[in-house]
Specification:
alpha+beta; Alpha-Beta Plaits; 2 domains; 5-stranded antiparallel sheet
Amino acid sequence: MANMNELVEQLQGFDISSLDWERVGVWPLAGRIFMWIAALCAIILGTYFLIVKDKNIQLATAERQEITIKKDFEAKAFEAANLDKYRKQIAEMEDSFEALKKQLPDDTEVPDLVDDIDEKGTQSRLVINSVKLQAEKPAEFYIELPIEIKVSGGYHEFGAFVSGIAGMPRIVTLHDFSIKRDGDSSATLNMDILAKTYRYKDQE
């Protein structure tokens, strides 16, 4: 206990400026303890900056990668668990697509479609002034086939005509209609309307 007290007193009264750096071997005990502590601190700091710090950075990077890989694994596991469901949905989409393709006329069916539109006008008790095919408009997956229609009649007949076209087995959409009276005193109305049907464009 006495030796410990003496050592503490020596450390408290220790003055580093009094040391002879060329004669380290004869330093007092307090000086040597100070050097040991300083060397130990230097080793700890050097180890941290040279090894531990880089390892901590590598560990943080690995932890982030682990989170990303875990999320990817969970997503792929979910897809694998629902693979049969996805295949069934794809098959249903292909069936729906084929059904829609059948509702699009091909080149040989376009004249028949024009005749059907003319017939719908006659059934609706309209006067068919003209039904004219316009220039085709190619798009990415289909070709648009505009048809200019001019008819005369009354509001109720126009409604029946539009309903008849909507119920056709082929896909036909109606656009840009205008209705004008045939003269100031006439009860007859003239309607111009643009019908559009679509033809599937084969992909290479």
